[in-house]
């Protein structure tokens, strides 16, 4: 009576394949799994079993609650923690942007439901043109003053959770804001929430830090005020309230400080804020602080490159923040699995594991001859190079 349900383990395995193959759509994941017999074995499919299509993946994702995806992410955290890949001494935090599956041309005004094109048409008619053309609308939109898209005035009917934001390349799209909390010593991502793209860094920092604190508690590495964990972030997270809140807490801040607009700071009797800002500034000026900021710029940005660029999540094909976060958590779990694979086998991806070379050098010395034997293993084939050197040459 119809197609059987998709086992949850096969659903998660297919998305892990999508991460390692850099596939951004579920149709591409299905095509790749159908094209490889070895991937079929990884999915535990028989010779006559059919690879689930993209509709099965979508239905399974809607039926599995968000908590199940969070448990898969926690399971990956547990595995890397058992291998000693979670130190909990320095945590780097940063955010990025990912394009939502909604177009700016579909946005409507919050007050009256008027679309952007209807607004332009009304403005052109008010200027004296009774039957405006597309060229008239474009000309007016290009030349009018005070043009601005605000999330307070506009929303998307296609994806109400997506917000208008400027992307990393300078373009403007409806987007989400993923944020990573990364262990700077092992590169493991400890938290990967997705916030609204209109949320500032200072408002999303506290929710982001709740998850790595829970994960560190699970492996008995939770920071305490006596043994705090370094919190390393860029100047977007610098705020007097933030620094005061983290003073005498399990987090020791090393947050980059922006330059005051007038060259000096006004404290207005707030001695607690002055103490917190001075302490953060002194920690930044130390050699440890400088090295931690360099690691943050390298490792946290690299995690976004792996998950968003290489993992195919810079542009999502899903709608609603919960659905997007379900898929994103599986990709981040795949990133952590890659770190575990690199620690176990020396390769972080399946393709890299196939191309690994294991050369061995043997030196055999006789009375008047030295023999070098180099054995290299490549793609299940073994090649040997033997070089004999006489005593006089040696």
- Principal-axes geometry comes out as flat
Number of domains: 4
- Radius of gyration (CA) equals 27 Å
The fraction of residues assigned to DSSP E strands is: 15-25%
Instruction: Give the H and E element order.
Output: HHHHHEEEHHEEEEEHEHEHHHHEEE
**Distance, first to last CA:** 78 Å
Number of helices: 13
Largest sheet: 8 strands, mixed
> Which spans of ≥5 residues are poorly predicted at pLDDT below 50?
378-382
Average pLDDT level: 83
Keywords, separated by commas or semicolons:
alpha+beta; eight-stranded mixed β-sheet; 394 residues; 13 strands; three-stranded antiparallel β-sheet
Topology, element by element:
Blueprint: H1 8-21, H2 26-35, H3 37-42, H4 54-63, H5 66-82, E1 90-95, E2 98-99, E3 107-109, H6 116-126, H7 134-143, E4 154-156, E5 163-166, E6 172-183, E7 189-191, E8 194-196, H8 201-218, E9 229-233, H9 240-246, E10 251-255, H10 271-285, H11 287-310, H12 321-345, H13 350-354, E11 358-365, E12 369-378, E13 381-390
Parallel strand pairs: 1-9, 9-10
Antiparallel strand pairs: 1-6, 2-6, 3-4, 5-6, 6-7, 6-8, 11-12, 12-13
Helix pairs in contact: 1-2, 1-12, 5-12, 6-7, 9-10
